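Batch manifest, entry 17 of 40.
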Amino acid sequence: TVIIALFATIIGCGGPTPQTKKSVDDDPLNREVDKEAATALLEEADSLVQKTPVAAAQVQRLELPETPEHPSRDIDGESKKDWKGIKSRAFKSRNSLQEGDSYWRGANDASFKVSFDSDAGFVYLLIEVRDDKVIDEVDGEVSDGIVLTLRDPNLDSFAKLMPEGAKVVDQIKAETKLLFLPDGRFRRWESDRPLPDEMGIFSVTKNKRGYTLELALQLEAFEQVSAIPMYDIAFRVEQLDGDEPDRPGYQTVMSMFPETDTDDARFALVDTGGVLPHYSVAKIPPRKNAIGAWRVTEENNWMFNSFEAIPEYWATIEDRKAFEEAIKKIDAFDSVCKSSKKELQLIEAYQSRGGQQRVGLIMCGDRTRGTAKREVCPAEATTEVIWTVMKPDGDGWRVVRAENVFGKKLEQCAWKGIEDKPFVTRLSLFPLDMQDPNMWAVGWTIRTDDGDLREDINGIAMLHGQRRDPRIGTALTREIRSTSEKRSRLTSKVYLTPVNDDEHLDLCQVEDVEEQYCDGVDIGCKTMEHGKTVLTTVQLYNPKIKKFERYEMSKHKNCTAAFDLSKREGYILMQTRGRVGFLPSPVTEAEKSDKLDLF
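Output type: structure tokens
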């Protein structure tokens, strides 16, 4: 699925630049931390699970505010003052025709305008339809109407990342398609499944120029979502139009993003700011940002179904205050992260189950300038992503190690990029304790958009706390590079599996590469002849130096294009939009009592 930004140009992504090696002592962040901690074992596995009394952790909970029960605007099918100032986009040219070119007579015949808004309780859509002859149905067949497709883009990504044989793919319902008729009736489009019990409120009003559809949709209209609150929503609006009362069916289809046989289905992607559920939450995720699906049960509760391995030695926590207080005690941090000039944000944090250690990922970067309507990241802005280790210190905590994840300052603000430069965003942290309690994965997305080039790259950086230089490897999960003429797409299935048939997990990457010709940036892209290839890359784990090393030979018998996780020990890396985790194989899960029923 290609996700298109509705009201602004979509931002692409760029890859990480090669780093210059430098000594730990060259980094001011390391000058005042414990030197012993830079090379010593952070904490033995046995210590990690001891129940030693320490300052209590604020263990991750799902604490949700009250959900507004009523929409913040009147849902009456009218585009009056409560939609004033809301961004909208009209679809009224021949470029929006999906079907019926010979029947379409211009914007008065069939066209529409879409406005979108949201708050904590509802997603709002206003669809203003122009249609000179409004006909509901002829002989039971739809003539005029609006088809609204709703999709959770993260669930859609999860399904594509799942390996062969994962039965959870059949259980994921990432998409809902609804048909609204001008006379007020509605139902699913192209499906006989019953609708959710509560979807929200909608209204249709006919007028001289056509009709207007206004909706206030609850989170429950999606049935399944990847996160609560829900921040990302993808949608597409299509107009069906039939102008002959004696002829059943529609002749014209207008679409926000017309599909062709040369590209994928495209959707508008919007950030809602966080939509809350109206139903109660019956079961919460095992950690913050866990990878899985929220589902509505028969009892009308939301329940979370995890797709990932649960860390054995680490528990996710939410204790921003403790991290910030510990960081303020280090003078070296003050030189790069003065609170008066920088944004300081704890992205994600864990505490060892024994309570003797905390590990967090911290973003420290410059603020944007300007107003809320026109925010600008200055050209001289810098940001650092810092992997931080803390230990108990009396009633509080002290930092024993702080490392720059990328080995350099990033040229960007904390939450916004500098124009035409790569922007690192959607960071996440996950312990790789299936390999070693001291090993971590930092997920990232890097975007670049300089007008003629869009790049979007997702990957992980791997760190090991026993090494003086903790950076031990990198793996890419996706890379899209788009120009006005060409697009290359790399999708990589990254497996942690014993390639060398020893007790250590290695990296086996199976990469699908597709080269395409395009009629514009991400428009009308068609795969070249012989434009699809499958490549494999192996990185073997060296336990002596605790680092992943590239396998120099071209192929390895245990890492091929036919790699089948359902028959092998190991995990597959799952990464999407600010979350990273690992799905275990059924072979790996066989010995566990709390198995994930995914295959």
